[in-house]
Amino acid sequence: MKRQIKLQNGFSLIEMLVVMSIAGILLAVAVPQLYNMKASYNRLNARSYFMQDVKRAQAESITQGCRGIMVIASDAESYSFGCDYLSYDTTTDPTYDKLSFKRNLPSNIKIASTGPIIFNSRGQAIDIDYIISNLTISFTEYTSGGGYSQFSTGTLLGTGVFNFD
């Protein structure tokens, strides 16, 4: 006579508790790291997009033969670019006549500039009086402490070259 062995399918309660405990520990370690990684990608994206957009703005100023103007929004969470055609008014803040593009920055990132970002028809950075000048661009990030802290600055040289410091 053969003895039949019954196989049990499934897990015991203790095995399930051990697996759930290990998963909980891994999750507790991984979640903060994911948040830090996302914030790091947002900082990198903001810098990369801005560098690309400066080059695009210069190219459009040259090809359109216009005075190109990048305008930072009042909330500092986006910027736009457009061409300003004749006639220029130096008594007011520069504005563009025709919008070319707009960029929203990643969440919790803000941008600031030491002056208006203007390109002449040669792609050089100029001030409102058409004098070739340098600008400092800074990026800040919202911190868990409730304020903004600067994470990157760069210089837009009069020649049109942009470098992060």
Poorly predicted spans: none
**Widest sheet: strand ordering:** 3-2-1-5-6
* Whole-number mean pLDDT: 88
What is the helical fraction, as a range of percent? 25-40%
Number of domains: 1
Main β-sheet, in a few words? 5 strands, antiparallel
The CATH class name reads Alpha Beta
What can be said about this structure in brief?
This protein has 165 residues and is α+β, with helices and mostly antiparallel strands.
Could you walk me through the main structural features you see in this protein, from its secondary elements to its overall organization?
The chain is α+β, with helices and mostly antiparallel strands and 165 residues long. The chain has one domain: minor pseudopilin epsh fold (3-Layer(bab) Sandwich). Helix content is 32%, strand content 30%. It contains one helix and nine strands. A hairpin with a 5-residue loop joins strand 5 (117-119) and strand 6. The model has no long low-confidence stretch (mean pLDDT 88).
Helix and strand layout, with pairings?
Blueprint: H1 13-64, E1 67-72, E2 78-84, E3 98-104, E4 109-113, E5 117-119, E6 125-126, E7 135-142, E8 148-156, E9 162-164
Antiparallel strand pairs: 1-2, 1-5, 2-3, 4-7, 5-6, 7-8, 8-9
